[in-house]
UniProtKB/TrEMBL annotation:
It holds the Pfam family UPF0102. NCBIfam families: PRK12497.1-3, YraN family protein. This is UPF0102 protein Nstercoris_01908. Belongs to the UPF0102 family. One of its GO terms (molecular function) is nucleic acid binding.
């Protein structure tokens, strides 16, 4: 496994642990379909939460938040719709972002409702 993949997996694990400490339940990790991938799918009460994890060691190019482009958002929405198709009645859902920044990956920022699915 490459160093970048290891860092990405570590960031996703840190994000999952952080969210579980906030009383969210992990449903899926690295959900993949033909539309793309969702890093984490969690449950917050009755709400399904689709989580994009981004790690940046510097703020060049706008940092972690700026890397969730409209194109990436569209892929996340399509992938989430694919996931939700298994439910007879789709539960409420939202898209969150976990941003991990600094050279040591020590700062975690949780953005609830990071973008709208419309």
């Amino acid at each position: 496994m490459s160093s970048a993949k290891n860092k990405g997996s570590d960031a996703e694990q840190r994000a999952a642990t952080f969210l579980q400490q906030q009383n969210l339940a992990l449903l899926e990790k690295n959900y993949r379909c033909r539309f793309g991938e969702i890093d984490l799918i969690m449950r917050d009460g009755d709400t399904v939460v689709f989580v994009e994890v981004r790690m940046r060691t510097n703020l060049y190019y706008g940092g972690a938040a700026a890397s969730i482009t409209p194109t990436k958002q569209h892929k996340l929405v399509c992938t989430a719709q694919h996931y939700l198709a298994k439910y007879e009645i789709a539960p409420p859902c939202r898209f969150d972002a976990i941003l991990i920044s600094s050279n040591k990956g020590s700062e975690i920022e949780w953005i609830k409702n990071a973008f709208d699915a419309s």
